[in-house]
Design a protein that fits this description.
- The chain is α/β, with parallel strands linked by helices and 337 residues long.
- It contains 16 helices and nine strands.
- The strands form two sheets. A seven-stranded parallel beta sheet has the order 1-4-5-6-7-8-9, sandwiched between helices. It has a two-stranded antiparallel ribbon with strand order 2-3.
- The two termini are 33 Å apart.
Length: 337
């Protein structure tokens, strides 16, 4: 469903009651009786999973595709470990020297499994017409970290920043092209996951993440297509002055930070979302504990018109659907009070 997403954001901020936003896709495997490995290998199954998740969460604000942070690294040549019931993960690194950074080739869109995910969004747009559909992409520093190794990337920010910038320049070009491919098939926006940036100091986040996120946003965002930004790191509150200037109208935060404290620094025209614990609550909690945590976050944050209750990150594949339902029950209970 095509719509003016700038207006969608403005209307969301103005609304007295707001629906919940979940980064929810992988638990669709339970309803389709398939494995994660099968899901990530088929555009048809991904579209079906997004549809069954949408049908199972009629009160959700939007539909969000898989947050598969191995996808883009695999297109660059990284090795990926697959599992039947866990999200794929990158193993090892492919860039460890300046020479390897210089030689790193930018893959064509469609490389690896990227075309599967693009096709899945195109198919899901024909199945889900009652809410915006967001594709998922990785952020620039998080992708660079997967190519170099997370610990190594952090060290190289100090010891060889030029090499890091070389990799970042290349992955940024790829991410722009990848996002534009999602835009071309009709997506309403993307949620860009930049978790590794949350490990950086504010100055390093500005240099090695925000600069490139802004470049991506400026090259892709329009009134009809918006970029959401996800950062689940502990340092997000300290990075907020930079993050709020990256151009994204949606900022999504993890459960490692105090959401109420963060809301004090979010400009009123930017929607901030978070931050019920995806592992501790949705995966390992109970319906009662999920509802209690949902209510707690809302009671602390809903005085801010630009706050939207959400999961702190992607909900794990085997999270209980009873717990997912309890999240929405918590929202309804809050507004009944």
């Amino acid at each position: 469903m095509q719509q003016n997403m700038t207006k969608w954001i403005d209307d969301l901020i103005a609304a007295d009651k707001k629906k919940g936003f979940l980064v929810l896709s992988f638990p669709g495997i339970q309803k389709l009786n398939i494995t994660v490995k099968e899901l990530i290998s088929s555009s048809d199954l991904q579209a079906q999973a997004m549809k069954v998740v949408a049908d199972s969460t009629p009160e959700a604000l939007a539909s969000v595709s898989m947050m598969d942070l191995s996808l883009e690294a695999e297109a660059f040549g990284s090795t990926v470990h697959y599992s039947d019931d866990e999200v794929p993960t990158v193993t090892g690194s492919i860039v460890s020297t300046k020479e390897e950074a210089d030689a790193l080739a930018i893959p064509a869109i469609g490389s690896g499994r990227t075309q599967i995910y693009i096709d899945a969004i195109e198919k899901s747009m024909k199945l889900i017409e009652d809410r915006p559909v967001f594709a998922g992409v990785i952020g620039p520093f998080s992708l660079a970290s997967r190519l170099m190794g997370v610990s190594e990337a952090m060290i190289h920010c100090f010891t060889d920043p030029d090499m890091v910038h070389t990799v970042l320049t290349k992955v940024t070009k790829f991410i722009i092209e990848y996002i534009n491919a999602y835009k071309a098939v009709g997506a309403n926006g993307v949620l860009m996951a930049e978790p590794m940036a949350g490990l950086l100091s504010p100055d390093l986040e500005e240099e090695f993440s925000c600069k490139y996120v802004k470049e991506i946003v400026e090259a892709t965002q329009t009134d009809e297509f918006i970029i959401g930004y996800h950062n689940c790191g502990d340092a997000a509150i300290h990075q907020l002055p930079s993050i709020t200037k990256n151009g994204c109208r949606i900022l999504h935060f993890g459960n490692s930070i105090n959401m109420a404290e963060l809301m004090k620094g979010v400009p009123s025209d930017i929607v901030a979302m978070g931050n019920v614990d995806p592992a501790g609550q949705f995966r390992n909690g109970t319906p009662d504990s999920v509802k209690e945590d949902t209510l707690s976050v809302m009671e602390q944050c809903c005085s801010y018109p630009n706050f939207v209750i959400s999961s702190g990150c992607d909900i794990p594949p085997l999270a209980s659907w009873d717990n997912i339902d309890a999240f929405f029950e918590g929202i309804n209970e809050y507004y009944r009070k």
